[in-house]
Amino acid sequence: MKRQGIRFTGIVQGVGFRPLIAVIARELHLVGFVYNDDAGVYTEVQGKEEAVDFFVEQVQTRKGPLARIDSVTVTDLSLGEEALFVIAPSPAGKQPATFIGADTAPCEACRQELHDPMNRRYHYSFINCTHCGPRYTIVETVPYDRQFTSMKEFPFCKACETEYKTETNRRYHAEPNACPVCGPQYSLYEVVNGELQALTGSDIPIDPLTLGRDYVMSGHIVAFKGVGGYHLVCDATNEAAVWRLRERKQRPHKPLAVMVDSLATARQIAHITPEEAALLQTPARPIVLLPQRPEAKVAWSAVAPHNHYIGIMLPYAPVHEVWLPPGGVWVMTSGNRSGEPVIYEDVEAKAKLKSVADYFLVHNRRIVASVDDSVVEVVKGETLPIRRSRGYVPTSFNVRLPKQGATTVLAMGGDLKNAFAMNRGEAVLMGPHIGDLANEAMNESLIHTIERYKDLFGLRPEAVVGDYHPQYFASQYGKTYSETHGIPFLPVQHHHAHVAAVMAEYGLQEEPVLGICFDGTGYGLDGTIWGGEFLFCQGATMQRLAHIHGASLPGGEAAVKEPWRQALWYIRDTYGDTLPSWLEPWLNGLPENWQLLDQMMTHGMPMVQASSAGRLFDAVGSLLGLGNVHTFDGQIAMSLEQLAYGERGKIKEFTFDGEVLDFKPLVQDIIGHLGDGISKRVLAASFHRTLAYGITETMEYLCSLYKIKQVVLCGGVFQNRRLIEEMMSINHDQVMLLPRQVPPNDGGLALGQLWLGQQRL
After folding, report:
1. What is the mean pLDDT of residues 32-41?
2. Which of 83, 273, 310, 402 is deepest in the core (most CB within 10 A)?
3. Is 541 within 8 Å of 606 (Cβ atoms)?
C-alpha cells in the first residue's frame, strides 16, 4: 500500500478537474480526497502501489479541454484510514496563487442542448458547463468557487443544484451553472427622450431576443450587454444603419468587425483558408481578418471603407447563437465612444450609450471585469495576433527566464495599444488589451486592471519595468508605483523591448538575433525618434547596427497625427524652392495653414528627426491621396497596404551604405510619378515591394557580417501582411521569426520589458 500527496498547478479550477480526479481515483480503487485551494488543486490518494503510480498519468491523459497542468509535485506520505475518496471543500484564508482560464465559447455538448427543443435549457442564453463558459469576467477572487463570482447572486433551483453537486455530471461545480428558472435573464429597453423604458422583463411576457432581433433587422442600433462588456450592434447589410452608428459613435473611418451566425455565412462574405476556418472555431472565437468577397450583400463601403479585408467572428456566447438570424451579418463593435474604455457597468452604459443606441438589450448578471474582443490574422499559414484579449486572457504562458528569474515583475507596456504583464516564476500573465492611454478614463482602466490582477493572482511586484520614453503615462505611473512601494524601476528602450518579446517567446537567451523593428515612433537612445531599426540583440544587450533614413517631423507630435506635414517636407527635400506645377492639386488639398508651415520650414525651423518606418508609410500614403489626418492609429498605413492590393509593382531605387537604409530615392520616385498618370495602386505596390527588397538585402548583409542565423520581425509595421509575405518570398537563408503569443505592435511590448527586466535585476 502507498499514499501520496499531489499538487497540481496551472489552469485546474473550474474546468472539471476535481471530478476527473475523483472518477480516476475510484476506478483505481484509491481512497483519499481532493480540493481546490489558493495554489491550485491538492489531492491525497492511497491504495495499491501500482494504482497510485498510474494515477497521475491518467489525470494528465484525460484532463478536460480547458484544463492545463503546469506542474505536478508528488510527496510520499504515511498511510491514512479513509474508506472512500471524497471531494472536500476548499480551505479558506490564504493568499491566492493559482491561475484562471479565459472565457470560452459553448462546447459542443452545450450547443446541442441549446438547440434541442426538448431540453430544459433550449435557447437559454447562459448555458455552460465545466468545459466552457465565462471565467475571468465573472470571478472576483480565487479559489474559483461560485461564492466568489457574480453568479452568487442567483440561487440554484433544485435541478441545477442537483447537477452542481453530482460528481458524475459535467456540471459538477460548474460555477456559472444556471437555467431559465434560476439564472440570469435578458430584458429589452427603448430609448425615449433620452430615458430607458422597459419593453420586456419579468412582468412583460415578450421574448426580448426576438424583439431585439427585429429591431436590428429593421435598421436600428442596439446596445447589447454580452460577456465582457457592451457592444453596439446593427445590420451590416444596411448601409444607412452602419453610417448612423459611425456618426453617433464618432468613428468615421476605422473598420468595424462583424459577427456572423455560422461558418457557412462567413464563407459567403469572405475567402477563408482551412487555417482561418480553424481559428474562427477555436474556443477563443477571435475576430479573424479575412479577404472580402466584394459581391457579398454587405455594405462594404460603410463597414470597412477602402479595405479589402473584414474582421469576422463567430458566436462566442450562447446568446449570440440564439439571437443572430440564419445568414445574419451584424456589425458588433465595442460599446464605447471612440478612444474610451469598453463599457461594462450598467449605469455607465445607460448614461453614455443612450445617445448612440435606439434600444438596450441587457442581462442582469454583473460583469466583474471587461475584456475587448481579440483580433488575429493568418500570414503564410501561421497565426499573427493583432489584439490579445477575450478568449486568451488571463491564460498564462511560460517563457524561459534566468535561473534567478523568480522575481515578480510588473511590466507597464506602452501608451498605445497598452497591455501590461506580470509573472509568477516563468509563467507570464499578460493583461487584457486596454487601448491607447490618451485620457484619464483609459489611465484609470489600466490602474484598476493592474490592481485586479495583483489581487486575483496574489502577485506582489518586486520591480517595475517601463518604456524609456519619459512622457509615457505608463512609464510615469510605473515609476510612481516603484517609488511608492520601494522597489526598483527599470527603463527599457522601446524597440529593444519589441525584439525581446519575440526572443522571450522562442526562448532565445544565448544566441544572437537580428531584430528588425519597424513601427511608428519610439524614443531613441540618441535623443532622436527611432522606428526603422536593425538591432543586434543577445541576452539583455542591444546594439543598433543600422536604421532607415532620417526624415524631419515638422511640428513634432503634430506630424504624427497629420502626415501631410512630413509629406510636404519630402516634397521640399526633393524639389527645393521651386515646386512643379503638377503638385498643385495635392497642395490644394492641404489644410489652410500649410503655407505658414512651409514658410517656417524654408526658414530653418527646428525639427525632430525620425528614422521611422511608420511615418514613412504615412507620408507616402498622404502623397498618394489617402488622407492628411489620422482619425485612428495606423489609418493611412493600413490604407496604403490596401491600395496595393492585387498589384505587383516594381523595385524602385534605394541605397544602403552599411548603416543607413535610405528610401528617400523611393519617395522621390513616387512624387515624380504623381503627375504622369501612373496608377496610384501600382505606386503603392512598388513602395511595398521596394521596402521588402531593401529590408531583406540589409538583413542578409548584417546577418552575414555578424554571423547571425535568426531574425526577429516586430513592431506595428509588421502587421502588414503584404510586406511580410513579400519578404518571406525573397528570403532563402535566414530564419525569420514573428510573434505568436503576443502582437507585434505595442500590445506585445510588456512581454519584452518583463523578459529584459528579469535579466537585468
Report:
1. 89
2. 310
3. no
> What's the pLDDT at 173?
87
Question: How far is Cα 203 from Cα 205, in angstroms, rounded to an integer?
Answer: 6
Q: For the residues 477-500, what does the mean pLDDT come to?
A: 98
Q: Are 712 and 515 in contact (CB under 8 A)?
A: yes
Cα 11 from chain centre = 20
Phi and psi dihedrals of 621, rounded to 5?
-60, -40
Own/partner pairs, 579-585, CB within 8 angstroms, 24+ separation: 580/675, 582/674, 582/675, 583/671, 583/674, 583/675
DSSP 8-state code for residue 583: G
CA distance 731 to 699: 9
The distance in angstroms from the start CA to the end CA of the chain is 48
Question: From the CB of residue 234, how many other CB atoms can be counted at a distance below 10 Å?
Answer: 30
Cell readout for 520 is 511608428
Spatial separation of the C-alpha atoms in residues 421 and 413, rounded to whole Å: 8
Strands 309-313 and 258-260: parallel
Q: CA–CA distance from 246 to each of 313, 334, 485 (Å)?
A: 20, 12, 44
DSSP 3-state assignment of 511? coil
C-alpha to C-alpha distance for 748 and 754, rounded to whole angstroms: 11
* 315-361 pLDDT, tens digit each: 999 999 999 999 999 999 999 877 789 999 999 999 999 999 999 99
Give me the pLDDT at residue 93, please: 63
Report angle CA 616, 622, 625 to the nearest 5 degrees: 145
Do residues 82 and 21 touch, judged by C-beta distance below 8 A? no
List of residues 6+ apart from 554 with CB closer than 8 A: 565, 566, 568, 569, 597, 600, 601, 605, 607
Q: How many helices (H) and strands (E) does the chain have?
A: 24, 31
Helix, strand, or coil (residue 710): strand
Quote the pLDDT of residue 16: 84
Which segments of 536-577 does DSSP mark as H helices, in order? 557-561, 564-575
DSSP 8-state code for residue 581: G
Angle between helices 680-706 and 721-730 (to 10 degrees): 50
> What span, in angstroms and rounded, lies between the C-alpha atoms of 435 and 41?
35
CB atoms within 10 A of CB 7: 16
Question: Which one-letter DSSP state was computed for residue 44?
Answer: E
Contact 346, 225 (CB under 8 A): yes
- What's the pLDDT score for residue 403? 66
SS3 of residue 42 by DSSP: strand
Write out pLDDT tens, residues 87-136.
Answer: 998 887 666 667 888 999 999 999 999 999 999 999 999 999 999 999 99
> Are 739 and 748 spatial neighbours (Cβ–Cβ below 8 Å)?
yes
User: Quick one: CA dihedral 599, 602, 608, 609, positive or negative?
Assistant: positive
DSSP conformation letters of 341-382:
PPP-SHHHHHHHHTTT-SEEEEESSPPSS--PPPEEEEETTE
User: What cell numbers appear for 41 in the block?
Assistant: 488543486
pLDDT in tens, 388-399: 999 999 999 999
Q: List the grid coordinates of 705.
A: 557580417
Mean pLDDT over each residue of the chain, to the nearest integer = 94
* Half-sphere exposure in the Cβ direction for 250 (13 Å, CA): 8
pLDDT, mean of residues 19-31? 94
pLDDT-based confidence at 739, cuts 50/70/90?
very high
Residue 384 half-sphere exposure, CB side, CA atoms within 13 Å?
A: 22
Task: Count CB-CB contacts under 10 A for residue 282.
Answer: 17
Report the alpha-carbon distance of residue 415 to residue 223 in Å, rounded.
28
Task: Give me the helix-helix angle, 564-575 and 613-623, nearest 10°.
Answer: 80
